[in-house]
Amino acid sequence: MSIRSLLRALGLLAVGLFFLFPLFWVLMMSFMTNADILRSPPSLIFEPTVSNYTSLLSGSLASQVGTLNVDYVQNLMNSFILAAGSVVLSLLLAVPAAYAFARFRFRGGENMAFTILSFKFAPPLLVLIPLLGYFRQIGLTDSYIGLIWVYQLITLPLVLWIVRGYFEDISEDVEYAYRLDGHSWWETFTRIALPLARPGIASAGLLAFIFAWNNFIFALVLGSSRVQPVTVGALNFVTASGIQYGQIAAALVLSILPTLAVALYAQRFLVQGLSLGAVKG
Amino acid sequence: MVANASTAARANRGRGSVAYRRAIPYLLSLPALLVTIGVLIPFVTAVVYSLQRYNLAFPQGRAYIWFDNYLQLAMSADFWHTVAVTLIYTLATVGVEMVLGLAVALLLQKRTVINDVMSVALVLPLMVAPAIASLMWKLMTNTQFGIMNYLLTVVGIQHFGWATDPNTAMFTVVLVDVWVFTPFFSILLLAGLRGLPSGPFEAAELDGVPRSFVFFRVTLPMLMPYILTAALFRMFDSIQQFDIPYAMTQGGPGDALMVFQVRAYLEAFTYTNLGKSAAILMVLWAITYFLSQVMIKRWLAMREKAHGAA
Amino acid sequence: MSYLQISNLSKSLGRAEVIRGLDLAMDHGEFLVVFGPSGCGKTTLLRLIAGVIKADGGEVAIAGESMAEVEPEHRGVAMAFQSFALYPHFSAFENIASPLRADGLAEREVKQRVQEVAGMLRITNVLDHMPKELSNGQKQRTSLARSLIRRPRVLLLDDPLRNVDAKLRYEMRIELPEVLRQFETTVLYVTQDFKEAMALGDRVAVMLDGAIRQVDRPANIYRRPADLDVARLFGDPPMNLIPTRPQRHNGGGITVRLGESVLDAPGCPERLLDRECVVGIRPEDVHFLDSREGDCLPVRLEAVMPLNVRTAMLVTAPGALELTSSAWDIREARDEENDTAVRIDLNGAVYFDPDSGQRVQ
Asked: How far apart are CA B245 and CA B264, in angstroms?
């Protein structure tokens, strides 16, 4: 084996370790009791336990200082509702808009697309803090709707960005042919454009789901404890006292499982979406 | 019998639909626009706040002081500290991620089973919420039981403070950022690398050109557009980064991690000084707006090329 | 009133004026070929007629009624695309059936008519295939079947044989007019290949730079091209174009000087006497002679190009005169010969004004 391939293998090993070890280690920790975690030096051989998960899921955590009631399951549900809700709304709004921008040359079209896409770039807090004031006045702070609407700032531009590229890739001739066959532009959109752009729509939706799930600051500022997702919930968890470290690890694992699962299941879609989106816009 | 009756009939339908046709694109895109326009109102409100002395603790003192907030910021050492911290954070994260991301992409370039599996696995950190990643590393760098400290003692380093030590806190959060976002670079650069034409490389190999020359004079220039695009994207994120420093230490220890948005958050929610907070955010917005214009121009140029070639 | 009337049509794409002041008229049931080099705007013209893009100026009228306010799906126009434009996620059957579905026909009738058209185009055996499983020839026929099935008022064919391999192209060049005749539809056929244009159309419209230069029967265009550009385009090998200055010969007739020789030019317009002009001579009128006997122009044979059943020869004559000659027999390529001659027949020659490029009557 040459020096070059040895170095390459070592490099790969180092890289693999760096990126994957933390995931592995936190997973390990989630199956350890507090005693195992605090043991020094740490050891890979221990007696695994699921008590961390059972306590989390049941909602009552027993520790030295007594029993704490934590509704992490509610946080997980919230994350689902917020992420899925945002994605659905974004798809409904952005896919037709992407088609309009891709196919129709209309006055103010490029400007509109620009405006929507540029919201991606503004500092979130700039908008969130005043928005909190309005939310309180309108009474949206304790609702999913308010958060789902604000999440559009993240998911809408993303879906628009990716799906427009896919629509532009569909040969116009195919759509012309369908029109000349006697179909209206709506039929062309639903029966030709949408099916042919399905991979793009899927990857946009998946990416949007992940971004929405991973969001932290929007929910931190605008969400009440009833609707907060796992990202905020996990932080509260960590800073609360009397929580066992194993339970923290378990909470973290639960919070990342869905996005990791989505990523593994649909990784080709995601990579396509990311690179196409960034390069072709 | 020439034209079918149905085609003649069809030719008579749909009169006066042209006005409707012209409205279609607006109908399609308006909802999306409106939803995002809902953002303009808070934006204007924030601008107004930044021009006022507005503290929730003293609501009766609320008044327009115009650019005083900005002047005070310019004269405050804390503010410039924030600028410095943010700059360091941005340069460190983007710089390291760029180099490391390129290295990883180069390592994974050849299509082997191991490489393909690794490509998938290495995407995972990018899928973790930055706030959660920060918490994960917080656990791992815990000075009592964290595995990282143990590993350090193995190589002879005792008492590494990680996020609890003001000197090493920045290093810690940069590390988290690198862990989460390097895959962004490596995915993009890998796609770029795989998309490069093989012609020049085959020619170089035939001519016996040394590999380092090929890398620096052929590969790198061709990859530049991807590298720069990715770097600009990341720069945006890093300048505005909130999740990672906040989840780790809420800005501390002291003000070691007081990047822009963390600072603004604390001003608004701990010190209830909405005027000052808004001013800080406006400065940040000005910077990111400028950056976004640069980026949009590059992106437009790349779109031209991509679509022109088609 | 013509069946398809295009008046003063213009369209710009971006900053380029692709179609300018285009006029064209077609009769009911006519087969018109639009011929022009790539980039002349043929596809844009078809899209304007079909209505999938909107013109900047001018008008398209079908059967006397203006199409300005009529959407593409209501015009009764069908188009077969160069890229076939089949729906990738529909089977060949569904592709062809698509127009009938738009009409809402009953399933039984749809099946029957699809089978009928597929039979005419000999693709019944691949109806259940998906487009990516079809060969280019099958794709082209499927595309044609789709456009023919609803008996359109006007059928637009965008260079349909371009992406089809040579052998199939030859077959279809014969077959296509047969099939189309059965549908009795008005056909506008676009091509870049002048041989195709000559073979297929009742009339040919030569299109250059976004406008129609000449519309006539192919033989007439060949013999009397309207201007220099048309003359160059329409002919393979291209027409010989030589600048010259007609003079009156002592005996009363007009002569032209080609190189160092002076030849009788019976067909030369009197108007051009003593004026600079360009004379166009078809290679077939430059008769190649193996020996220098009799009334001839001595030349040097420079190159021989075998072209199927003809041979083209490049010759030079004294006075820096270069000519292309074509002969109907297959000659062998030999090294340059110095003992050859040509006899130029100026009876069919045409004359052009050098500034405007227009042919002078």
From this structure: 13
